[in-house]
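Morning - zinc ion inputs below, output right after.
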Amino acid sequence: MSVVFRSGTVLTMDDAGTVLRDADVLVAGDRIEAVGPALEVPEGTEEIDARGGIVMPGMIDTHRHMWQTAMRAYGADWTLTQYFVWYYLEHGRRFRPQDIHAGNLVSAWESLEAGVTTTVDWSHGLQTTEHADAAVDALQAVPGRFVLAYGNIQAGPWEWSASPDFRAFVGRRFTPGDDMLGFQLAFDVTGDPEFPERAAFEVARELGAPVTTHAGVWGATNDDGIRLMHENGFMTPQSIYVHASTLSADSYHRIAATGGSVSVATESEQSAGQGYPSTWSLRAYDIPVSLSMDTSVWWSGDLFSAMRSTLGADRSRDHLEAHAKGETVTNSRLRAEHVVRWATRGGARALGLDSVVGSLEAGRKGDVVLIRNESSPVMFPLVNPYGQVAFQAQRGDVEAVVVNGVVVKRGHRLVGFDLAAARAAVESTVEYLRGELGDEAWEAGMHPDVPDVEILDNPYQYTEYRSDSTHGA
Ligand SMILES: [Zn+2]
């Protein structure tokens, strides 16, 4: 079984940043066989016309709470405070295994729809291993590449990671070296000087599993957590620090010195309040970056959005800092090519898969995305392909997706997706949760109080003007 993308603009994302015009990408079996002009292909190869389009590696999301997709958009007006109250303290514990399954299934398909071929499921709603089995069942029902990052916010990581059920689950569901389904431990380090998380880090080390952790989150995790990890020898090149927005220079130095990477979820940080998106700071420490979407309870599982918002936040900060000094930024530091690299190679590196996915090179696994939309006025002229991906394209422009050599999206349509079943499952979860909470609590959870806005005294007098702002609307 082989498939070839014909005559596209190919962003290889190789080390040299090679971009090929009018070139082909041939995937044979589960691997990329060749990249170049007018390739000879085996008989029976499926041909995908890529003329006028961009062929690039599948994108990689290194942090998404996929189970929360069952509540898509519910928290659009939340801050981190409402998020914590809803999921951690009040309603998160009501999720049953089938609810985790419903959220994961639709989130996994959403990834493929948007050209995200590898997704880390930062699954911190696993109250029991039945929940965990449901999470993995959903991921395995979808032809994408996934990593289950096992977590449980209803218990300490030193508790759940020590349970025989957890150990049996890991043994039952994961095969070392399987690049279609990876495994991590997901928990946060509180900064408690007793460092109770030590036991969980030891379990991770014993299992050979990386740890992913929300670090540098305003009001939740801080430099103490980083220092404890470092002093106790648990910061490794496999460690992923999510957000890392409110950390001191000392913590960034510790991350850089131990080779870990930061998963930046710009849209999340901008809106929820973990701290300013950290790419602007990370540059100075030469810390590797990957991108993530965090949760579809607010945002979508769409890395175009991550690339765009990351460029915006980074450049915005650059200008703001310069203006404060009376200076002008004349050349942008962060380029469109950089965020496309973070969305591909950055993720692959973070997950220890840099020799497996993230670039279009012979021998890599066949994760390929075609961005092309024959009926859109936004696909031409194609003069700057990185700029096209970062600022112009959107997920509806993802025409074809191949994962591990298998065509999972073609002609803008997912292959083998039972939409009706996925929708019915999510609707049933929403109905259940709404019933558990009652209509009043359900509505209140979606609509937090709006703080008062103090209107400033205006020295100018309006006579016939009436405010049309949201205040008083
Ligand atoms: Zn998160």
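Note: The chain has a mean pLDDT of 96.

O.
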